[in-house]
Design brief:
Layout: H1 2-16, H2 30-36, E1 39-44, E2 52-60, E3 68-70, H3 80-83, E4 108-115, E5 120-122, E6 133-137, E7 140-145, E8 154-157, H4 162-177
Antiparallel strand pairs: 1-2, 1-4, 2-3, 4-5, 4-6, 6-7, 7-8
Length: 178
Amino acid sequence: MKTIRMLLVLFFVAASSLPISAKVHILLDEEACAKSATHIVVATEGNDIDGQLQVIESWKGDLRPDDTLTIPEFASFKSLESQTVKCNSDFQLCVNGAPEERVTCSRMILFLRKDLRQGKWNGIGELIVVQTTIWIEGKRSFALQDASKDERGTLARFGLTEQQIKARVIAVLQTKDG
């Protein structure tokens, strides 16, 4: 018994001397965005990634399917490099040599605020629209993490399906309106 205690003490002393570093990532909060948004839509860039989006569905606001949105910052996702999802989460399994994941901009959930004075679309708070967007690729979702007014952020897995995101957003909207 004394030997086991001694081994445990040695283990914890050795383990406590190991360098441990972890970065806390800032993630998009879809529920907070839903509360602040004037409009929430599912949209597509279509065949050309040029900042001209077409509304597929509207979850909040007066936009309708087939309405066109002009949001120039989406044109920055034209290059393959800008579409690449980074594996930078401490809890995400990153496999060397695995194929890179990319967003196609073919299906995105946008949390928007309409600026009536300037007649343009904004993101939530100080964030631009691409920073308050969730990209949907099949059953996977992606968003910019560590986004701020000074940094665009890094594309990373968001971790929920579109159906899960919609259910959370609709629940927030019903609570807010009800």
